[in-house]
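pasting for the record
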Amino acid sequence: MTTDLSTLTNAADKCDEMAGEFKKLEADYKRDVSNISLGQTWQGLAATAASSRFKVTLSEYQAAQKEAKAIASLLRDAHQQFTELRGKLKAVHDDAIKAGMKVSEQGVVEFDFEKMDEGTRNAYHHDRDYQDSVRTAVGEWNQAIKAAVQDINDADDGVKIALEAAVIDGDVTDGTLNGFNRDAKSDVEEYEADHAASIAMEINNGNKVSAADMAELQRTFRDNADDTKFTQTFLDGLGAQNTLKFTNRLNDLAYFDDKDHKKDYLGLQKGLATTLATATKDPDSTFYKDFRADLKKAGVQQFDLDATGDKIAVGVGHGQQARGYQSLVTLMQHGDGYSGQFLKDMADDIRHAEDKGQGGDPDVWDLSGEFSGSQDGWFANDPLDGVLGIMAEDPKTATSYLDPGADSKNDNLEYLLKERDWDLVNTTKDQAKVEGIGPDTFDKDVRTGFGAVLESAATGYVPGSDHELGGHSIAQARIMHDTINVLNSSGQAEKLPENLTQPMANLMTDYTPDLHQILGLDNTTYNTSDKAWTDEDGQTHMSVPRDQLVKLMRGVADDPAAFGQVYQAEKQYSLDTFAGMPDSTTNDTTKARIQEASAAMGAYDGVRGDVAFDKRFNDTQWTNDFNNAVTSAPGAALNFVPDKYGVTGDIGNRILGFASYEATKDRIAEINAAATEENYKSFTSGQKVVDGMVTSWAESNGHDKESDFAKVLVGDGQLKHKQGRDQALLALRTDM
């Protein structure tokens, strides 16, 4: 904190002066010595010999200038870095003081009890929570000071590497040993990158790398995480092939050869992934274009990797190699912050390598053995699914990648839903006592990345994040619309592809306002539209044919918990529309809200009826799981974006005391009834839920639940419930 950093710039000025003096000496030497051997007055062997030596010396004067100027630049670079980093340390120090801490000259933070008044001090001694909060704060400030000091130390080590390297004469052909460095560089980060690349190549070559070099590599990655010059120089020095070999070798060491230091190797993977993310920020840079071109070649090449080679102990599959893109995406999973263009370009390039329609090989990623779960799920054997999972963290990019567009020219969504070969696991079978090749199958984690990116793209939010439901852009709504259409047209809606059930349930939950109108039967705009559109109020909507939606609901219902989630969202949305109804038995708005809710709940009852027909399920267990999902969901947990169909967005207007009719026992009774067509057509528990919502709303407006007022409203929805249920069953069962 007290070092006079101006000595660095003073030294830099002296180095520049030195370069100027060497330039004068160069001119003097060239005029008075070197040129003598070039004239006509001195001829012969001695002149020839002298001339070659004079050239070396003249070249050294020139190299000295280059070295001096480079050192001057390095010192100024150091001054800039140290000044900035010390400023950050001072800011942390000052903030700690303001927060009631005191900081020693060694950087140790303690709570400053002297600033407490007597009352606060007494409260502290008697309040355990207060004491815990102080200890936590002290720990956090200590860590902040430590991190700021570490940043300065990291930068200092980088400058040391640069200054040491700048004065080394690496040219053995220039006529001198240990002379001046004519190739001296003026950027600290370039020297750090060269040094880091040399360590990486030692690791690639299987050589023993010292703990000091490993620590230096970790420091270099940490210190230059955001530096484009360093990251591009490092990766450019390695090239795509050696970068992939490097990440493979780190995985071999972490998971097989040196497990005791696994944490260190995975730390290097994170540093390498961050380096990749920073280097590829600018898609217009020469580096980006060249590195991507190299990756296209290396991405389909095969590399040694213990995880793949030793996956099968003996027989078919033993010694199999990993493809470059598999290694690349495995690496990328350790990092974040990738540019949207880089993610899309990688997805495009991987698809190009596998898509038969683009000249690729659908089996290019196929390997024997599964790569899923905690043991080896870290390896991205499906690189496209892996990069899509990373893309899911960037909803804007996800939407751009999957949006078919107004002209439907972007076919990424259709390719992933309908055309792609997801079976990447080779199998074997016995053939006349010889092990032969069997049909391909899929990993347990198949489509997990796709499911995540689909959810991100169609909602605009990272999967799992809290947000208001509804309120989509036209591109997001287009993705949801086309997803439902393609799943139906390809015959996958009622039996969803592996691992897409929960993502589709999440999407349906997010699109509850649209689903409510589709299932509500009477909305003319929704009934006549099969598209995504924006209305005159600027709100975006999505509609598909009702039978398509019902079939998707049936597909989700294979998972009773996922289906319960969607059901609960519909139930709450309906309740929210009730909150804004006029207090009337004759008002059209009130009738419409009740009828819409009844028809929607009828559709859910129809889907439950179809589940009862399906002998794949234990009916009672399915219903128990569904009931648990519905009853465990909080009644007012979901917030919907205000829309023109009744939701105000004002949580205060909700029926906070809502006590819906609990249909759990009715659903069990329905499922346990004789398995006849008539029984399944008489599932009515959903209507009883609506009836309970209506009477609860009536009570919230001062009406007795047994009053004629309530009874009239209850009767309004019952016919719609039957229509919704029967139409759902008809869409699912042609024999009804």
